[in-house]
Amino acid sequence: MPLAQVDTPALLIDLDAFERNLRRMADFAAKTGVRLRAHAKTHKSPVIAAKQVALGAVGVCCQKVSEAEVMVEGGIGDVLISTAAARAGATLDVLVEIDVGGRRCGAAQGEPAARIAELVAGSPHLRFAGLQAYHGSAQHVREAGERRALIARAVEQVEATRRALAAMGLEAGLVTGAGTGTYENEAASGVYNELQCGSYIFMDADYARNKRADGSLFADYEHALFVYTTIMSRPVPERAVVDAGHKALAVDSGMPVPWQLPGAQYQRPSDEHGVLDLSGATARLARGDKVLLVPGHCDPTVNLHDWYVGVRGLGTAGARVECVWPVAARGALF
């Protein structure tokens, strides 16, 4: 069907940009020799996970056990979850998480983390596999030099923990972490051997504010996720009201950005409405026109929708729907 016939608000994937993003990260992982374990909390879709695995990802990383269940039921065979216990005669690989600067979860570096690894290694149902060392807050630090320095400190903490493990006769075969904002630093460290990037497939508006080393904006990946919305009211020339508010868009990382509408700003979301300030825009929009919004934060925006609408040729007059994929792990919060 033509894109114009899609009911709004709808969660759209630009399939052309999405596929280029998939390939770019897969090529990076292959070139650098690190494993890619894509984070499924971004997309919550076994369909997308299977595409990542088909391009070389070793599996996916999940934030919640229920999310992992959806991935396994969807055919993904290698899933890393945040917490696991084995009482069914199985032996599970376990990673010990260390706090490398995010000040969220994780044991302290060095001996405290090594003591936990020792307990894991001594369990009949568990096998110590390595270290979880993800620096979440570093992903959205704008300056490249500052991001690089934060990951350098994370690497130091990983190395201190590896030394403490060695003193106990243990080895961390796997050091996993990294995200879309810092993955190049972890890959170059010689310490991390697995990446957990997730948002690269969609590239939300917040990640697009990060900067490269030369000061230019981080544009390695293309915007591929949009909320498709309709202008439902034009009360005054400088204002348009769209049918996408809090129930269609997450705004925790800033407002969505109108795509290819220079000067337009999305403001004042309510439950079902959002306001476009058009006072500085050149485009002339009428009631019934459709607008694409780049979410500020892709992960929680995805969790607000039941379906992805995959569109081929987005941005052209011939844009058409090619596929519809369920957001299968929507609401998988436990």
Give a verbal description of the structure:
With 334 residues, the protein is of the alpha/beta class. The chain has two domains: 3-13 and 219-326, Lyase, Ornithine Decarboxylase, Chain A, domain 1; 16-209, Alanine racemase (TIM Barrel, Alpha-Beta Barrel). The protein is 25% helix and 23% strand. It is built from seven helices and 16 strands. The protein has helices spanning 15-32, 46-54, 65-73, 111-121, 144-167, 183-188, 298-302, and strands spanning 10-14, 35-39, 59-61, 79-80, 92-97, 126-132, 174-177, 194-195, 225-236, 239-242, 257-258, 265-267, 274-277, 290-294, 307-312, 320-326. Strands 1, 9, 10, 11, 12, 13, 14, 15 and 16 form a nine-stranded mixed sheet that branches. α4 crosses α5. The longest helix has 24 residues, at 144-167. The protein is elongated. The model has no long low-confidence stretch (mean pLDDT 95).
Secondary structure layout:
Layout: E1 10-14, H1 15-32, E2 35-39, H2 46-54, E3 59-61, H3 65-73, E4 79-80, E5 92-97, H4 111-121, E6 126-132, H5 144-167, E7 174-177, H6 183-188, E8 194-195, E9 225-236, E10 239-242, E11 257-258, E12 265-267, E13 274-277, E14 290-294, H7 298-302, E15 307-312, E16 320-326
Parallel strand pairs: 1-15, 2-3, 2-8, 3-4, 5-6, 6-7, 7-8
Antiparallel strand pairs: 1-9, 9-10, 9-14, 10-13, 11-14, 12-13, 15-16
CATH superfamily of the largest domain: Alanine racemase
Give me the secondary-structure category.
Answer: alpha/beta
Instruction: Give a short account of the largest sheet.
Output: 9 strands, mixed
Shape: elongated
- What's the β-strand tally? 16
Assembly level: single chain
What integer is the average pLDDT? 95
User: What's the total helix number?
Assistant: 7
Q: What would you report as the Rg, rounded to the nearest angstrom?
A: 21 Å
Using the 3D structure, state the CATH architecture of the largest domain. Answer: Alpha-Beta Barrel
Query: What is the CATH domain class of the largest domain?
Result: Alpha Beta
Structurally, how many domains make up the residues? Answer: 2
Q: What is the CATH third-level topology name of the largest domain?
A: TIM Barrel
* Strand-residue proportion: 15-25%
The end-to-end span amounts to 37 Å
Helix content: 10-25%
Low-confidence stretches: none
Order of helices and strands: EHEHEHEEHEHEHEEEEEEEHEE
